[in-house]
Each structure stands twice: as structure tokens, then as C-alpha cells.
Amino acid sequence: MTFLPVVPLREDAPRHRIAYDPTRPLLRSFSAARAGFSAGSSSPREFLESRIATLIEQEPAIAAFVAYDLDAARRAADAASARWRAGQPLSPVDGMPVVVKDMIETADLPTQMNNPIYAGWHARRDAASVLALRDAGAVVLGKTVTTEFACGNSGPTRNPYDTSRTPGGSSSGSAAAVGAGMASLGLGTQTHASTIRPAGYCGTYALKPSFGALHVGGLAQLAPTLDHLGIIGASLEDVWAGAMAIARRAGGTPPHPGLAGPEEAPSPAAPRVLVRLGTLGWMETPDTSRTAFEEAVSRISVAGVRILDADNDAEVAALEALLADIGDWATDLLAWESRWPLAAYRAQGAAMVGARIHDLLARAAEMDAARYAAALAARERLRAAVACFASRADGFLLL
User: Fold this and answer.
1) InterPro entries per the record (predicted)?
2) Which of 46, 66, 69, 94 has the least C-beta neighbours within 10 A?
């Protein structure tokens, strides 16, 4: 078993830059390889060995992992290979290499949350999501880097395409590992975009499910009404299969029943209408990215999809207006709800936590229950505005 402390990356660590080509990504989908398992031309063990080879080659430059156990992964892949040879796989994810964000408990590997308070700490149990995936036959390859308690100091992880750039956070390691082709599925968490942001930065697929739709048991709590379990994958099919494996075996966070649907992704269907949102980040976006986004929207429109935006639809304009002040009240929600556990971590010693945690606690100290209630009300208004599009559009387009 190899343990990798979360420390700043060495200045002499390898560096690389790979031009991103969406037709030739670094991603390695397990679902795309399953036909070979059934035919006997390949196996989950062979698929895992290819992922391990990528890990050994790329990890020095990317630093996605906190700990991994390659021997245990190989044993699990061998068991999955035997089941596929017998024509009796446990599920579509039987043998799938999975990485787990280091905010999520695992019985066999430490959960350290990128903070010295938890250095070497073992939960002695699997989180609901990890247990469900193991029961479905998935292969847990290792634990991946998180920002401090999923809200503070960053770890050493770098972007798999350009190591001079960030992988995004807080599910940094899971997104980078999947994005680099080290694994096909990564468990992340999301409180403020912590799954979809790094997934986007690292060129992967991701799901932030509806609140409560995937069980968060064994996920270190940060903000109870914001915390989600997130899924990062090498393909839409991998994300779907992983999410459904968890939902079928662990359900949602009570009292939510959990995601419902078929075990594998259905055939795709073209959208009819999409809503284009600028959001706050548009003002910070360089011209090159704006141009690329506009070209993508144009291609979708030419393909026959109707695009609604703030210029041609009053409800979209109203939604954009509600999003304009989201930064203030969303941070209020996070600060108020995370007072515990962040205050408990700080109680171990002020130097044991980073500046971002001190800032959140200071913000919470300035708040009262009325201000928290106002933030909750603002969220309900935004949810209602989004819900208006359920019958009008198939989804949203944004950076």
C-alpha cells in the first residue's frame, strides 16, 4: 500500500502540455470496453493494467492521488474478470476502476481531507456510495486529492492537459485522474460546483444529481443543505452506470428515495430547446473562450435546436437577474451551515486550518438567523425560476 502525503508539488516535478482534441480525449471509458469482456477478447484485469500504466506514467506530473492500493485493485479486477468469463457480471460496473475523493470514507484506505488533523485517519467503514460500488463489483483504485475539507487550501494536483493550470476543485484529484485516463469513474462531492467545475476543467463527464438523489452517508459533512455526492466519468455511459449502481444499492439520502431509471443509459435523443446562460463567469472569460462557446452554440442551433437566451426570452432574462447576486447569498448559506464542523476543526488550533476556513467562520460570526433565512428564501426563488423551464426546455448551455 502506498501513501502519498498532500504537500505542495515539487518544483522539479515533470510538466507537460497536451493540445485538447475532443475527438481524441485522454479518457478511457469502461462501458466502451465491456463488449470485449463478454466476447473474451479482453478482461477487466487487462483494462485495469492499462489504467495502472497510465497512473505510473502520469502521476508524477499530475499528483491526483493521496493513497492507492494496486495489489487490492488487481485482486478485485481478477474476481471481476472471472465473473465476466462465466457470463455472470454483477452489474455494468463490475471491474470498473474507480477513484474516491478524500472526503469520502473508505474502510481500507485513509480519509485525510487534506488537513493534518486527519493525517493517517481511517474511518473503518465504507461510505454508502463506496460500499454500493464495491457490491456492484467496481474496483476501488485509490483516494484522490481534495481541497482542504472541500472548501479550503488546494492540494498539489495539476490539470492533465496542461500542468501549468489548475484541475479545478474541490474534487481535484478525481477529475484529474479520470481526465488523464487513470480511472473510468471518480467519486466527488459538491457543495459549490465542486464536481462539475473540475470535471469541466479536466475534460470529463459529470453528474451533480438532484439534492438527496444519491446517498451521502460517509461523506464528511460541510453544509447539510448544499452537500451532494457527485459522479465524474470517462463517458456519459460510465457516469450513468456508476450513479445507478449507487442508487440501486444505497438509494438516496433519507427521506429521498434516490435516482430512478434503467441500469444502463438509454439511447440518446436530440434536444428540442436549450437555454443559454451567461452567468457571472462570462464577464471574466477571455475572448478566445467566448468565441469557442459562441461557435458551439451556433453549431447546436444550426443542427435544429432552438436556443432561448436573455435577449429573446423574458423568463431567461429573469433567471439571469436572479443569478446576478447568487455569490452573496450562496456564500452565506455555506458559511452559516459549515460553522460546525469548521469551528470544531479550528478548535484544534488556529494554525491547523487555512485562511479560507477562517474567512468562512468570520462571515458566519457576522450573520444571524434572519440573514440565513433570507438566503434560504433567495434559493427558493432561484429554484422556482429554474423549475419554470422543466416544461419548456431540455437543458441549459453554459460555460
Assistant:
1) Amidase, Amidase_dom, AS_sf
2) 46
Number of C-beta neighbours around residue 341 at 10 A: 14
Q: Are 33 and 27 in contact (CB under 8 A)?
A: no
Per-residue pLDDT for 125 more than 80? yes
Cell of 54: 497510465
| Cβ–Cβ under 8 Å, residues 108 and 69 | yes
The residues, ordered by sequence, that sit 6+ positions from 5 with a Cβ below 8 Å of its Cβ are: 66, 119
User: 206: which strand partners?
Assistant: 232
pTM score, two decimals?
A: 0.96
Whether 48 has a pLDDT exceeding 70, the answer reads: yes
Please state, in angstroms and rounded to a whole number, the distance separating the CA atoms of residues 373 and 390.
26
pLDDT for 1 beyond 80: no
Q: Which residues are catalytic?
A: 101, 170, 194
User: What does the mean pLDDT of the chain come to?
Assistant: 95
pLDDT of residue 280: 80
Phi, psi dihedral angles at 274 (to 5 degrees): -130, 150
Given pLDDT bands bounded at 50, 70 and 90, which one contains residue 281? confident
**Angle, CA of 190, 103 and 133, to the nearest 5°:** 85
Taken as a whole, the chain contains a residue count of 399
Q: What structural domains does the chain harbor?
A: 2-250 (3.90.1300.10), 269-399 (no CATH)
Cell of 117: 488533523
Contact in structure between 241 and 31 (CB atoms under 8 Å): yes
Q: What angle do CA 160, 161, 162 make, to 5 degrees?
A: 100
Strand pairing category for 185-190 and 97-101:
parallel
- How far CA 89 is from CA of 37, 83, 250, 292, in Å, comes to 10, 5, 19, 42
Cell reading at 176:
484529474
